Amino acid sequence: MAIDWEYPEGATPLDPEEALDLIPGLATQSELNEFEAINILEGSNWARRSTKIKRALLEQETLRLLHKNMFGQTWRWAGSYRKTQKNIGCEAYQISSSIKILKDDVQAWIKWETYAPEEIAARFHHRLVWIHPFANGNGRFARLATDLLCEQQHWPAPTWGATDLVKQSQTRTKYIKALQLADRNDFASLMAFMKS
Ligand SMILES: Nc1ncnc2c1ncn2[C@@H]1O[C@H](COP(=O)(O)OP(=O)(O)OP(=O)(O)O)[C@@H](O)[C@H]1O
Ligand SMILES: [Mg+2]
After folding, report:
1. Which entry of 27, 30, 48, 156 is 20 to 30 Å from 37 by CA?
2. Ligand minimally distant from the alpha carbon of residue 87
3. What is residue 4's predicted lDDT score, i.e. its pLDDT?
4. Hey, which of 88, 134, 189 would you mutate to test ligand 1's pocket, going by the most ligand atoms within 8 Å of its Cβ?
5. Distance 18 CA to ligand 2 centre (A)
6. Cβ atoms of 35 and 12 closer than 8 Å
7. What is the pLDDT of residues 123-146, one digit of tens each?
8. Counting ligands in written order, which one lies closest to the CA of residue 146?
9. Structure confidence at residue 12 (pLDDT)
10. pLDDT the model gives residue 172
């Protein structure tokens, strides 16, 4: 089975070996998108019931479990950190320590009110997606993780441009541009996007 991969702007292409780890037999990208969407919906329902998510969202083990529940029926590497280098993201061997530092940072930002809640949410989302812990699904995973953080903190829920960001659109272009500005430490556009 070989899918003709179509990547929207800012997506992370899979390595050939990672692409072989697709569990269901699917023929097209749109079948894959649909299969993943169902898997993700089940994963997000699981996340809302999980006591682990409630108690320890920012722990590595919990974040990996979240990715596993979102993509585990689709990809064999779901929930495992990537081993390959991508067009964005830290070196693969730095993922674990980067996630640990992110947890400490977010907890400190919340405790000391270093930034306003919406800026903490934007910084968390950007750093998580920039670390790019997994072979794929990082955007969708990091958006859900950010939604869950906001729910737990009783912060306003991000609306992410009120569009399906998986497909190419003007809204997706805006989202990717906002992330690129955040790469340069400018979070204003991302904060605006997250509540648009
Ligand atoms: N310059 C950048 N800085 C930080 N994050 C970025 C940048 N460019 C892209 N991203 C993030 O990487 C994601 C793409 O990574 P990946 O393909 O692993 O995620 P996905 O969930 O499969 O895709 P998507 O979220 O695009 O549907 C984008 O959605 C975006 O969140
Ligand atoms: Mg992708």
Report:
1. 156
2. 1
3. 84
4. 88
5. 12
6. no
7. 999 999 999 999 999 999 999 999
8. 1
9. 87
10. 96
| Reported pTM | 0.96
Residue ranges of domains in the chain: 16-194
| pLDDT tens digits, one per residue of 73-89 | 999 999 999 999 998 99
Among 34, 40, 176, which residue has the most ligand 1 atoms within 8 Å of its CB, making it the best to mutate?
176
Using most ligand atoms within 8 A of CB, pick from 5, 9, 12, 194 the residue to mutate for ligand 1.
12
CB of 37 closer than 6 angstroms to any ligand 1 atom:
no
Q: How far is the CA of 176 from the centre of ligand 1 (A)?
A: 8
Distances (CA, A) of 90 to 83, 96, 97, 149, 183: 11, 10, 10, 23, 12
- At the fourth CATH level, the homologous superfamily of domain 16-194 is Fido-like domain (1.10.3290.10)
pLDDT at 139: 97
Q: How far is the CA of 10 from the centre of ligand 2 (A)?
A: 8
Looking at all shown ligands, the one closest to residue 175's CA atom is: 1
